[in-house]
Amino acid sequence: MHPYFFGAGARRLFGVYEPAVSGSERPQAAVLCHPWGPEYLHAYRTMRLLAKRLTAHQFHTLRFDYVGTGDSAGESEEGGLDEWEADIESALDEIADTVGTRQPVLIGMRLGASLALKVAMKRPHGVSALVLWDPIFSGRHYLEELHSSSRPDRGWIDGAAIAKSAKHVDGFPLTERLETGLRALDLFSMINDLSVRTLIMMTRGPKEEPLSRRMPAVAGRAVSIEDIASIRPWVESPVGQFPVDAVQRVASWLDE
């Protein structure tokens, strides 16, 4: 595991590079895109486990913090969807230069999955495969979820409580620009335009309807939709619980 910074100037990003366990004549690489806000905190250990599992499948991996988040440069109020998409593109270029492959795999969870999809649509020939783990299809519904799940002691705060942000979700600033970008997010309108081999993996509760019944048909596209019976790694759960089956499914699907 090699933590370091990449990028230039005010957009220096903190990343963790993990080389594949064994060499390969055709080097493979994967960029992992985190969720945002409290979901980033809850999913961090799972994303680390996923990176480690992929190295055993001969993938070099890079996971990183978006600008204005984690240990990357920038203030927390500076981040937005456009900036974070640009960060993903920078991470793709970084791992490609490091490993020597021009078509890394792109893997994202929750908001990271939504951003990864948008980047893959912009760079269809620069991504070999796409894994969307519990992506946010509707930004409006996502905002409602954030509102309902935010803790009352730290949660959804109106007013300029920290810096100039109007709202916070468990201490993470939700600026007007970020909220506007999320409200406009609609993956349902984009999914049929995907040309990259894609796995959409959804964690489904026992009483929830399968995703295949809730989303429009993806006719003629190389998109696999799978419902996974597992814990939701992006919500708070007991320490020591990991979605091991889901992590293994990502790795095995990439090997297919």
Using brief descriptors, characterize the structure shown.
single chain; 256 residues; alpha/beta; Rossmann fold; eight-stranded mixed sheet; two-stranded antiparallel sheet; 7 helices
Kindly describe this structure.
- The protein has one domain (2-137, 186-255): Alpha/Beta hydrolase fold, catalytic domain (Rossmann fold).
- Helix content is 33%, strand content 20%.
- The protein contains seven helices and ten strands.
- It has helices spanning 38-56, 81-99, 111-122, 139-149, 176-183, 211-214, 244-255, and strands at 2-6, 13-18, 28-33, 59-64, 105-109, 129-133, 167-169, 172-174, 198-203, 223-228.
- The strands form two sheets. Strands 1-2-4-3-5-6-9-10 form an eight-stranded mixed beta sheet, sandwiched between helices. It has a two-stranded antiparallel ribbon with strand order 7-8.
- It is globular and about 50 Å long.
- Residues 154-165 have low confidence and may be disordered.
